[in-house]
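Board notes (copied after class):
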Amino acid sequence: MTKKDLIGKVQNQLKDCPSRDVAFAVNIVFAAMAGALQKDERIDVRGFGSFSVRRRHARKARNPRSGDPVHVEARRAPFFKMGKDIKKRMNTPK
């Protein structure tokens, strides 16, 4: 599902709101989530899951093409942990 698909699904639920306003609201939610992750804050969405930031330490890797060693800098990466409700829905047969 793309962001455009998500906006379309929300628009189908909110028939009174113009699609421009729905798209604006979806963009605000995503911007707020990205801002929270940038500040190393955790995001919990009940029934869906949680988003957090994990730190990756600097390490030595190798270039798969040449085999030469490469230094990989330390970085932060987003992490999603699925909630119990969504995991249960995904693992039940249709």
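Comment from the instructor: The beta strands are 43-45, 49-56, 59-62, 69-72, 75-82. Helices lie at 3-13, 19-38, 84-90.
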